[in-house]
Amino acid sequence: MDERPNLLGEYLRARRELVTPEQVGLPVIGVRRVPGLRREEVSMLAGISADYYLRLEQGRDRKPSPQVLESIAGALQLDPEGTSYLLSLVSDQPRRRRRQRPAAETVPPRLAGLLAGLPFPAFVEGRFFDVLAANALATALSPRLVAGANRLRDVFLDPAEQALFPDWELATLGLTAGFRESIGADIDDPRAIELVGELSMASPRFQQIWARHDILPRQGALMRFDHPQVGELILHREKLAITGTKGLMLVIYHPDPFGEQAEKLALLASATLPTEPPITRPARSAGSIGI
Predict the structure, then answer these.
(1) SS3 track for 160-192
(2) Alpha carbon of 206 to those of 148, 185, 195, 219: distances in Å?
């Protein structure tokens, strides 16, 4: 028996349950006992046999052709990102068993000066959404944006971080979908297992969203914050891949120039400036005082 996780079957089942018959033009007849589409409806829409589709969901066939998967993706109305993720779950390469935690992610030294010099909140995010480095303005935006923190843990479990996002439910959808895209098929990575297990136990919201199997690229977005010092703050978020690393991103929040949001961010930045001690001059000895 194949003891590997049935990622393909789990994804197909989760996405099938999110598509209604009305969305694909099927008539609704009688009482439906399952959410979304039935297996036989997906197979009919995809042009494959119901038995073969059942084998895919149950993990008894793990090597369908790309053409079959693309037909199923069309039946499930997957977007390009969801389709790419579906295709990535099928590989001819045997999955290697991980016996040890992978080496810790490290920030390239060249980024230290860049982070410090940026006039906007910025931090480095790892594949598992760990904060690896952050500048002072990022920490002023959120005290949880410090090296060693994890964005998933903070957004789902920290009440102060939740209060920072007036659109918290929407933010959690995007965050979880981005995390799933980031780890891809490495769901059995020890770090992924640790995070998903912890959050599933502690957060019903995460458990609900994780079961949807949503996929979203780590990309730019417009973010709205309710900051305790400057009030509503609307910033653009950019996620830029760091060359020479495996999945590290430089995350930058920036406002539209010359507007109210830029003024608010400047006010927040001014609060992060270090207070310089008064300049003192050494006392001169009596013998050195000119008379």
Answers:
(1) HHHHHCCCHHHHHHHHHHHHHHHHCCCCCCHHH
(2) 21, 19, 11, 20
Q: What is the mean pLDDT of residues 165-171?
A: 94
Tell me how far apart the alpha carbons of residues 68 and 74 are, in angstroms, rounded to a whole number. 10
Pairing of strands 221-227, 131-134: unpaired
Whether pLDDT at 89 is above 50: yes
Whole-model pTM: value is: 0.78
Interval 99-121 mean pLDDT: 82
pLDDT confidence bin for 66, thresholds 50/70/90: confident
Asked whether the beta carbons of 42 and 75 are under 8 A apart, the reply is: yes
Could you give all domains of the chain from N- to C-terminal order, each with its CATH number?
Answer: 7-88 (1.10.260.40), 110-272 (3.30.450.180)
Q: CA-CA distance, 1 to 183, in Å (whole number)?
A: 26
Q: Which of 89, 74, 78, 38 is nearest to 212 (CA)?
A: 78
